[in-house]
């Protein structure tokens, strides 16, 4: 188990110092936080983000820095060759905005590409190599954040990532373990071998991993913005590298990539206003369904097995709807009004037996009439009250495994998040149908769920990696805050999950006690209580009544030097 360190850095502003333990010291909620807080999965990213704020940047500049540094130090989880979602809160205007930087399907991607000679889904093609990669969106998001929301030049915000890529960083256990687990795929490609076998053997804990090609790519983005990645030298190398391995990208479609600005989903739960991710994320819709279903019970008055039973039944119904209805809203008609309606949630609630599990096979798997250890997350709040909750990914460990030579950019394998063959589960066991079928230019459905919570006395930002389990991680984080837990307690709380199919409750080690498992099984649930640890929830919170900041990072998953840092 890794220890989470906290840094308290005084800026000689005594009027902003907060004395712990003075509950009710303020007569009214504070208008501004007493400083800034960042929670991310790696100390180098957190420290770099704090330095950006110290140099005059805001939360959005820090988000560029943290995202770029994570793209360097977590090639196992995310990077410039992937995509992400950025939920932003602008304190000056009070506006919340969602940036959709999800990858998109190349023009050549059709369902037939991903089938074998017998018409079955080819998992290797869907999850590894050139055809598994969608066109990346993360670099465009970093440029947009800096140009439209930040205060500092893009070159300043990217400087730490460039330096760390050039000088290197210590290899940590998860990076080594993940490489060994995917070694056969990674070593298929000469560009990938150039990065990870530069010293003659695979990465080992304690060695220094340097990425000079990635540093050059980052420098070109710093100098040229969007064109530094999507046009010119890097674009040519990306297209050449993909096509040399049998894929089919074009310079024109890469240059046409755009970040989508979308309106976040908003709903209320027990005095909290929840602001969260809209499609192409499935997370916000599922959160709204689950919490509105659960609102029919006072969860605090239920015994533990009963509380878990109710939440699992809510999860089951929300994931069923995720499977059937959700996809890219630019391509798919989504019945949002119905899915977000409290009346619809009430109807689903009425189908829950308070003492018996509903077998998933009894919930129809076809549409009604229409009306990861992988991935990474960080949360930021600055002294003006601006906030960022961001989740970024390349999908499975090391994504597609393909680094186009000369770029240092490991490409995603997000094409597996499409319903490449409707009704066939993907790598996370999640099925999809026509709403999420692959089409050229379409964005694949995601579970990434960056979220804000607002109440008169507290503001939080939270999110997590974990594939299809991201949504339930965030759900349990929200419930943890509602129960009065601290940010660190929320981040460290063991989790459980159900996703409609397979019909089983998954539990992290220590999440479900033997007596709870026995009670759930007596209700008819199938339970796997010891599935290790998934996800790395990172969260920040501002207690407006005490005017105190706090931050929490999951201490249980080995991800290098995960760190929470506060800058009062």
Key words describing this protein structure:
alpha+beta, 7-stranded antiparallel sheet, 15% strand, 33% helix, 19 helices, 6-stranded antiparallel sheet, 568 residues
Describe it.
The chain has 568 residues and is an alpha+beta fold. 33% of the residues lie in helices and 15% in strands. The protein has 19 helices and 18 strands. Helix 19 links the parallel strand 14 and strand 15. The protein is globular and about 60 Å long. Residues 1-26 and 366-372 have low confidence and may be disordered.
Helix content: 25-40%
Biggest sheet statistics: 7 strands, antiparallel
- The count of DSSP E runs of length 2 or more, i.e. the number of strands, is 18
Q: Ends: how far apart? A: 27 Å
- Shape designation: globular
Low-confidence stretches: 1-26, 366-372
Task: Give the structure's gist in a few sentences.
By secondary structure, the chain is an alpha+beta fold. It has helices at 43-54, 59-73, 123-127, 138-148, 154-167, 173-181, 183-186, 190-196, 212-224, 227-230, 232-244, 251-255, 283-294, 304-325, 336-339, 342-349, 470-482, 487-492, 514-522, and strands at residues 36-40, 83-90, 95-101, 169-170, 208-209, 260-262, 265-269, 272-276, 376-381, 387-393, 451-454, 458-463, 496-497, 505-507, 527-528, 538-543, 548-553, 563-567. Helix content is 33%, strand content 15%.
């Amino acid at each position: 188990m890794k220890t989470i360190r906290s840094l308290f850095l005084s800026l000689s502003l005594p009027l902003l110092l907060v004395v712990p333990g003075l509950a009710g010291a303020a007569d009214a909620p504070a208008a501004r936080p007493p400083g800034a807080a960042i929670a991310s999965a790696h100390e180098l990213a957190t420290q770099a983000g704090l330095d950006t704020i110290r140099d005059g940047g805001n939360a959005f500049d820090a988000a560029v820095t943290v995202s770029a540094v994570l793209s360097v130090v977590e090639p196992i989880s995310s990077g410039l060759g992937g995509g992400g979602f950025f939920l932003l809160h602008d304190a000056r205007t009070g506006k919340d905005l969602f940036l959709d930087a999800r990858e998109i399907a190349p023009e050549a991607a059709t369902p037939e590409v991903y089938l074998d000679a017998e018409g079955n889904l080819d998992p290797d093609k869907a999850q590894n190599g050139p055809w598994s990669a969608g066109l990346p969106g993360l670099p465009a998001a970093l440029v947009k954040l800096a140009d439209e929301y930040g205060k500092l030049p893009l070159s300043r915000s990217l400087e730490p990532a460039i330096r760390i890529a050039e000088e290197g960083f210590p290899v940590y256990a998860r990076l080594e373990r993940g490489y060994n687990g995917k070694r056969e795929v990674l070593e298929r490609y000469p560009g990938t071998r150039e990065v990870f076998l530069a010293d003659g053997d695979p990465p080992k804990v304690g060695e220094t991993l340097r990425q000079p090609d990635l540093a050059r790519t980052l420098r070109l983005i710093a100098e040229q913005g969007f064109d530094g990645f999507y046009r010119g030298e890097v674009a040519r190398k990306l297209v050449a590298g993909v096509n040399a391995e049998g894929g089919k990208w074009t310079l024109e479609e890469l240059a046409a990539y755009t970040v989508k600005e979308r309106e976040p989903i908003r709903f209320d739960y027990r005095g909290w206003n929840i602001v969260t991710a809209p499609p192409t994320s499935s997370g916000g819709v599922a959160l709204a369904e689950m919490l509105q279903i659960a609102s029919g019970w006072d969860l605090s008055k239920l015994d533990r097995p009963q509380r878990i039973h109710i939440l699992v039944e809510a999860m089951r119904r929300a994931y069923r709807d995720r499977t059937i209805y959700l996809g890219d809203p630019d391509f798919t008609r989504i019945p949002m009004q119905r899915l977000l309606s409290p009346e619809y949630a009430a109807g689903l609630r009425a189908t829950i037996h308070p003492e018996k599990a509903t077998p998933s096979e009894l919930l129809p798997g076809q549409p009604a009439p229409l009306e990861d250890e992988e991935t990474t997350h960080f949360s930021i709040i600055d002294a003006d009250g601006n906030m960022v909750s961001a989740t970024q990914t390349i999908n499975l460990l090391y994504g597609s495994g393909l680094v186009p030579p000369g770029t240092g950019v490991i490409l995603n394998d997000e094409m597996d998040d499409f319903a490449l063959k409707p009704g066939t589960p993907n790598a996370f066991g999640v099925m999809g149908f026509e709403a999420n079928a692959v089409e050229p230019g379409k964005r694949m459905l995601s579970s990434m769920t960056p979220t804000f919570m607002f109440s008169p006395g507290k503001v939080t930002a939270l999110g997590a990696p974990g594939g299809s389990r991201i949504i339930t991680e965030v759900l349990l984080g929200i419930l943890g805050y509602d129960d009065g837990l601290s940010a660190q307690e929320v981040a460290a709380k063991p989790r459980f999950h159900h996703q409609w199919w397979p019909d089983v409750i998954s539990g992290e080690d220590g999440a479900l006690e033997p007596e709870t498992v026995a009670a759930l099984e007596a209700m008819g649930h199938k339970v796997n209580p010891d599935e290790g640890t998934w996800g790395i929830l990172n969260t920040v919170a501002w207690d407006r009544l005490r005017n105190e900041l706090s931050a929490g990072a999951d201490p249980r998953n080995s991800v290098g030097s995960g760190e929470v840092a506060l800058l009062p």
